[in-house]
Amino acid sequence: MTCHSSDSTETIENDRRAEAETRAAQSEMGRISAAMRDLKNTGWYWGRLTANEAKEILQDASEGTFLVRDSTQRDYLFTISAMTSAGPTNLRIEYKEGKFKLDSVVLVKPKLKQFDSVVHLVEHYVQLSRTSCKGGTAPLVPPNGTVQLLLTTPVYTAIPSLQHLCRIAINKTTRQVQELPLPNRLKDYLTDYTYNV
Length: 197
What we know:
Layout: H1 6-42, H2 51-58, E1 65-70, E2 78-84, E3 87-96, E4 99-102, H3 118-133, E5 153-154, H4 162-173, H5 184-192
Parallel strand pairs: 1-5
Antiparallel strand pairs: 1-2, 2-3, 3-4
């Protein structure tokens, strides 16, 4: 017969709780790490860039041109800077409970889609914007309807490699890379970046 004091039971519970919190933190860091890896592969992630620097980059760009940068606000990881009909603007990306979504007014927030990565989020809104430009419905219209935000053309930090541009073109055509008649090394390269933007 064994007897546990309430102190030892409490210690065991505290240890279990601490272990669960550690696992959750490691999982969270893993998600953010994977999102960062994908984002760095895009060529349109600018890292530490201020709002004014982003504005200068976008100043003469056409509507729909965008880039992603680190957010200068502590509560957010990233910001999309984009050219609108009214000039350059910034839209924060919120990260909560392992998901990324656009920051918005409280009434709209619950309706916004959530994504596993920033690149998935951007890819989604680029597809909506490109559809909108071809006669679809407006993708990102603020509640007051004053400015439509389009994301159509990324601004690259440097000229992308031909391989990367080919990879994007292939990803626009098919999601079944393993079925393509290509060497495994090329398939690995294609699956390393599965986005079409």
